[in-house]
Amino acid sequence: MKRSISVSANAEKLSATEMYLEQKNTTLAAELEKYVEQLYQKNVPQNVRDFIDMTSAKKPARKPKAAALSQSGNQAEG
Question: Which pTM does this prediction carry?
Answer without folding.
Answer: 0.66
